[in-house]
User: What shape does this take?
Amino acid sequence: MADSIGTVNNQSSTQPNGHNSHSNTTESLWRGTDYGKWFVADSCTSLSSSIQGFAMPLIAQTVTGSPAQATLLDSIMTMISSVLRLPGGVVQDKYDRKKLMIAFGLIGFALFGICTALGWAGLLIYPVLMVLAICLGIRSGLLGTTSNTMLRGIVPDQLLPKASSLNDGRDAALELAGAPVGGVLIGGGLWLPFAVSALLNLLETAAAMRITKYWHRGGRTNTEGRALADDEADENGDAANITQAADEQATTTISSASQYWREMFSGFRWLLSERFERRLILSSALAFACFNSFLLITVLSIGSDPSHVVSASFMNVSVSVGVIVGSLISSVLVQHVRGGIVAVSFYVLMSIGALGAALAPWILARMAFLAISLLALPAGNAVINGFQSLLINKEHMGRVFAGMGMIETIAAPVITFLSGIAMQHWGYSVTSVALGLCIVAAAIPAVTMRELVTLPKPDGWEDHIRKSGLTKF
Assistant: This one.
């Protein structure tokens, strides 16, 4: 489902940009940066992932006739990706993220291209799918979050909330499109989803190669802190300043295993050692894990009646529709409403929506409550992601993002497993209400933090950080 509210975009090794005005944000986001090229690359990756997430289990089940073997592929990918998240964070902090995005796309093009050829030749057997799952898990763990960690190095800090809102709306739309597109492609042949994914990965590579204005070690920024392309830096040398992109430790080769392990876990340690970060990430990880588990058991409960299978599929659709609608108004909310109000509203709506859907006796009522539950997600995500990103330097982004992913990966499967056991023993009604109450409980640590509740509009975030005494990483 949706990313955790605690997820951050890219960070900065220099002081955040000094703009306070909100004028011309639309123009500067698309025309003054390489956000458009990044957006195309990231959209290709998201659509490919959505198609494969739907198609691969069905392809595996078609090949083997075994649902267990089909679900095993996803489990293997998730497990491998989770294990490699922390070392992947170090990789993304140490090396040029544009090159890593290109490598991500080329690897995907090669993997899906090979599977396309094998499928066309009638050689798409289960061991091939298993190897693909392992390779995709490795790619996801080491490079999968590179695009997200790169974002703050592409757009100015004051535009991060707007970019985050657009990304949430896009992701929801692609999530809606992924399943039907994947189904149509499978109807044309088991090899066709792989062919489309290969093409999307190639397009991602091409778009990433065109990115020139982005933060990287030793790169240049203009007087506003915005990344310059290499040719711009040469032409405007008097107006540009060389950023000290990384500290001495980050730029030297890791000389010992102990130092490598310290770096790998540094983001994770920072998240848990700082009170603000700890309460925010644990609150959001638990709330989202409970919400996703609630959504899953709702689908299972409705889908247990063969005549309601189609209705069950619309539960996910209603959530995506809520996110899309929310993304249409999120930019206005972020710029004109205090950040604390937006953030608290997100948690309140999620709690009300989940409890309402749990208690609603009719399917349409459940769909309405689910749509309402994430209506404030794009705005809330934009506020918290944008503010939180100011606390983290660009060169540490990969490690912090990996630490967040690790926390979310630990929480989600445990809560999902316990929800399944609870539903089996006590039924849907009791379990769904319990999960709704758990969402409320998980939200309490976040909505009772003074630093979050009193968060101003984006132009006052830097002052708020200083006044609140929050620590940067």
About this structure: The chain has a mean pLDDT of 79. The chain has 20 helices and two strands.
